[in-house]
Design brief:
Two copies of one chain form a homodimer.
Chain A lengths: L1 E8 L2 E8 L2 E5 L1 E3 L12 H7 L3 E5 H6 L3 H6 L3 H4 L5 E5 L2 H6 L3 E4 L4 E4 L6 E4 L1 H11 L3 E3 L11 H19 L8 E3 L1 E2 L5 H13 L5 E3 L8 H13 L7 E3 L5 H9 L4 E3 L2 H7 L2 E4 L2 E4 L19 H5 L2 H9 L3 H28 L2 H13 L5
Parallel strand pairs in A: 4-15, 5-6, 6-10, 10-11, 12-13, 13-14, 14-15
Antiparallel strand pairs in A: 1-2, 2-3, 7-8, 8-9, 16-17
Helix pairs in contact in A: 6-7, 7-8, 10-14, 10-15, 11-14, 13-14, 14-15
Amino acid sequence: MKFEIEARQGRARAGRVTLPRGSFDTPVFMPVGTQATVKSMSPHDLHNIGAKVILSNALHLFLRPGHELIDSLGGLHTFMAWDGLILTDSGGYQVFSLKNLMKLTDAGVTFKSHIDGSEHFISPEKSMAIQRAIGADMIMALDECPPADADRAHIVKAVRRTTEWAGRCRSVKLKDHQTLIPIVQGGTDVELRKQSAESLVEMDFTAYAIGGLSVGEEKAAMLDTTEATTGFLPEHCPRYLMGVGMPLDILDAIERGVDMFDCVLPTRMARNGAVFTTEGRLNLRNARFKDDPGPVDPDCECYTCRNFSRAYMRHLIMAGEITAARLATFHNLFFYAKITDIARRAIREGTFNKVKKELAEPYSSGGKQ
Amino acid sequence: MKFEIEARQGRARAGRVTLPRGSFDTPVFMPVGTQATVKSMSPHDLHNIGAKVILSNALHLFLRPGHELIDSLGGLHTFMAWDGLILTDSGGYQVFSLKNLMKLTDAGVTFKSHIDGSEHFISPEKSMAIQRAIGADMIMALDECPPADADRAHIVKAVRRTTEWAGRCRSVKLKDHQTLIPIVQGGTDVELRKQSAESLVEMDFTAYAIGGLSVGEEKAAMLDTTEATTGFLPEHCPRYLMGVGMPLDILDAIERGVDMFDCVLPTRMARNGAVFTTEGRLNLRNARFKDDPGPVDPDCECYTCRNFSRAYMRHLIMAGEITAARLATFHNLFFYAKITDIARRAIREGTFNKVKKELAEPYSSGGKQ
């Protein structure tokens, strides 16, 4: 993995990540396709949105349809017909958040399948074997992600284990096109974040992720921790803030030196009729859109906005039509791609602070967001 | 409406229907978009499938979002961003089949909304006002559609009422681009079908529909009735067999002189994982497709078949991903478009009997169909 920083403004960076199978500009938002599809989207749509990297979940794919099956069918790119880049999360976070955790030791984690209740054991080595087979371009080290209300002792232990596991992941041979990314843990404790980051940096990876945030802590704590953590990471490596977030969170994190993002919100919220626009977030179920002839977002050039009215979108949602989920998902992903594009351009042009303020404005007033 | 018959083979016809806003070749299959969307499809997809006409349901649109709303937003074409042609069914069939019928008199029909239980009255005049407002290119007369087990007296009455209502529909002024199509009723009684057809033909319409079939009667009775009924209709007018059917039914009806078709099966079955192929019908949930690297249909050039394996489709279905519904729907509609295309070409080339036999073969053996 090569990372070139093309421009900086304050701590914000505009750059370009180059991998053996493709490249992408940063800051970047990666649409989430947990189960080998970005819900309701075709690869053709993802290209039209301008997506260069998507995220999938190794744990989900391990449970269904199985990493060996995917491998035997040519790997995940071929399986889902996506010729862009893929990042797989190890799924450690899901093991903890799904409350299917059965046993956690230094050896690894035993958990119950959310699909059929079957019992499974994943070690760092096993996670690498799974992700190697799936064949994503960027793969995440197995980490321990404590809940937001974990006590300090728990977080200390998670940091130690996460570092140790990163080392074990690192000793597994991956495919030539694959890059391993370790995850900084440490809750909202700056000292622990420092420890976690420094111990990983010592191992000399080419990119670093910040995990364990957006798990229920206050937004200010999330941003402060992000800001502190990027400060502990090498300037020349891409930084990936996992699972964040709302448009404003992304802009705030870019300002604090983050380069890569993923989040289920734009896709999940689309399926509930919520759309992101330059006027703020709108819920299209609202009766005030009943006869609104205007597009979802008057400033948007996406397929949905070029063709359909808010009134039509509301009709589809009220009628329970899955076309609504599809059209709203397309729009929201287009919107997320647009704000990272705008941010990137603004950093290059030295106007990030001004542009950020304009973009953030409709998302800063509590009411609309 | 202009109808030119370009070729005949036996009773089968290949023709072209021209309307003020567009034209289409026959035999034609019209995808069903009951609630102003063909479930999971975009207008862009429908163009890619080669669809020229889609069907929508005036009764559903009357109940939600309301025909006046659609009218105020520029009509159904604009509302759903479909620049092809639209046929609206009056929805009389739905009133009867949904068992929400409350009262039926010569004046019209009173029924309960399936959405909120509210009570509504539709007369032939009201149905025309609704369909005029919605603005479809072809609109259906309000008819009475008795169930398959109705006794003769009931069918006699339905035929009389359907004719009378067709006359009342005919006296309502439509928009310039709209064509009214009356519906022949009569159950599986050839004498009543004759009466119904002749009384409508006397009123001199430009196209005729055959309704009240595929409501539970035996397939042989459906085909015999269709064959008899097309014989009572003028040669120079398009004939539309409503709600039929499976691929083999369509080929059988083309052979008996039918030109236009609609059916929810290809879209509804796609959402359940059933796909139509040149090898017959397959259910992609079947475990035998678990690791099948081949496309849904090896003989198909659609987006789904060009990009995805049966194994991937099965994975999406098992994982409950709506992308599965979308990709399978695209394929099934492509398949239906293809069989009517092939039939049309074969009629022009005088090879319909041979081609039909080939197409029908995998759908004739009970097992796979």
